[in-house]
Write a structure and sequence with these properties.
This protein is an alpha+beta fold. The chain has a single domain, classed as Peroxisomal Thiolase, Chain A, domain 1 (3-Layer(aba) Sandwich), CATH 3.40.47. It contains twelve helices and 16 strands. The strands form four sheets. Strands 1, 2, 3, 4, 5, 10, 11, 14, 15 and 16 form a ten-stranded mixed sheet that branches. It is globular.
Length: 389
């Protein structure tokens, strides 16, 4: 078994639901990003051995296959779509890395794509003749209705003990980082439908946050629209390769990152924030291995060893609690802003974190470590650690 490396990482801009991508089908969002990754790495479509994309809303039909064909990949290249809700994009990259590590493939395109704007209307088929179909916004995330809260309730639970002002401050900082980084973010964005920047990002202020509609209120806990990531459309893809392909890339002086660590987690199905907290905590505690002169040496990671952290911001309360519980250094966190400043394209969000991580690490010295982490409905969590080669 050998390592897995990321040779290229690109994404579309993120557009709020009903925005610039309102008429763009999911596979048409992903196709130009697939092509861009291959172009960046100097690889041809026929060299790709598999395409894996995460997606939660397209309604089936294997959107990864549609995207691969739309991108001009040969019909002989297989494609897989997976759904672990918000973790889908990061899980797709993990799966690609495992394929490469196991020797099952040497070049895999992986990531996620989502279109809230073009997602199909969903309905439960009638059980008896004469009954009408029942439309629904989301599927069940647990088999027990009593343990399947709405996502806004889950986010409210994570925000307990935090004031609206604290949540607003976190959201304001996320937007400020994204605005400051807009010029350098363009390097990772593939223009689609004329959009080459994350259109939701703005100069958010305490006054604007104070006027934001309240989405949830119970006792002293309040969530408003400024502190919850908006529904959005986007695609994000990385090119995962074997060591042989990575060495060729290094020879031309282009950035390469090795998949240093990747793992999925789970917690109580009604508590996704606990899953992302477990992902952060256990990633830091797990024993990692390096090979020096053919000798495996174990060591315990500490947060001070991680230069970049891309943490999902489903809400300000969730992200802020995760930061405090794990004592994350604010200087390492979401340097180009987070989902509060971009939006949350469910199946693509984890892949966007990986793309952001790759580009942030490209500016670091060789050996630098970076971590991406995200939680998903049903109590799932996923973490990916990359090391700059």
């Amino acid at each position: 078994m050998s390592g897995a490396f990321i040779l290229a990482a690109r994404r579309t801009a993120v557009a709020p639901r009903g925005g610039a991508f309102r008429a763009v089908e999911a596979h048409d969002l992903a196709a130009p990003v697939l092509r861009a990754c291959l172009s960046d790495a100097g690889r041809a479509p026929h060299e790709v051995e598999h395409v894996i994309l995460g997606n939660a809303l397209s309604g089936g039909g294997n959107v990864a296959r549609l995207a691969a064909l739309a991108a001009g990949l040969p019909a002989s290249v297989p494609a897989l779509t997976l759904d672990t809700q918000c973790c889908s994009g990061l899980d797709a990259i993990q799966l690609a890395a495992r394929m490469v590590e196991a020797g099952a493939a040497e070049l895999v395109l992986a990531g996620g794509v989502e279109s809230f704007s073009r997602s199909p209307l969903r309905a439960v088929r009638p059980k008896a003749k004469g009954e009408a179909p029942v439309f629904y916004d989301r599927p069940p995330f647990t088999p027990w209705p009593a343990r399947d809260p709405d996502m806004i309730e889950v986010l409210a639970k994570a925000a307990r003990g935090l004031s609206r002002a604290e949540q607003a401050a976190f959201a304001i900082e996320s937007h400020a980082k994204a605005l400051a980084a807009r010029a350098r973010l363009e390097a990772e964005i593939v223009p689609v439908a004329g959009l080459s920047f994350d259109s939701f990002t703005r100069a958010l202020t305490p006054a604007l946050c104070a006027r934001a509609p309240v989405l949830y209120r119970e006792g002293e806990t309040e969530l408003d629209a400024a502190g919850v990531a908006v529904e959005a459309d986007a695609a994000a893809v990385v090119l995962v390769a074997s060591q042989e392909w990575a060495e060729r890339r290094l020879h031309v002086g282009r950035p390469v990152c090795e998949v240093f660590y990747a793992r999925s987690f789970a917690a109580a199905p009604e508590d996704p924030p606990a899953a992302i907290d477990r992902a952060l905590a256990e990633t830091a505690r797990d024993t990692a291995f390096v090979d020096i002169d053919n000798t495996s040496l174990g060591f315990m990671l500490e947060w001070s060893q991680i230069s970049v952290v891309e943490l999902m911001e489903a809400s300000a309360g969730q992200a802020l609690k995760n930061c405090r519980w794990n004592s994350l250094d604010p200087a390492t966190l979401n340097r180009g802003g987070g989902a509060l400043a971009r939006g949350h394209p469910i199946g693509a969000s984890g892949a966007i974190l990986a793309v952001r991580l790759f580009h942030e690490l490209a500016g670091e010295a060789p050996g630098a470590l970076g971590l991406a982490a995200i939680a998903a409905a049903g109590g799932l969590g996923s973490a990916l650690m990359l090391q700059r080669v």
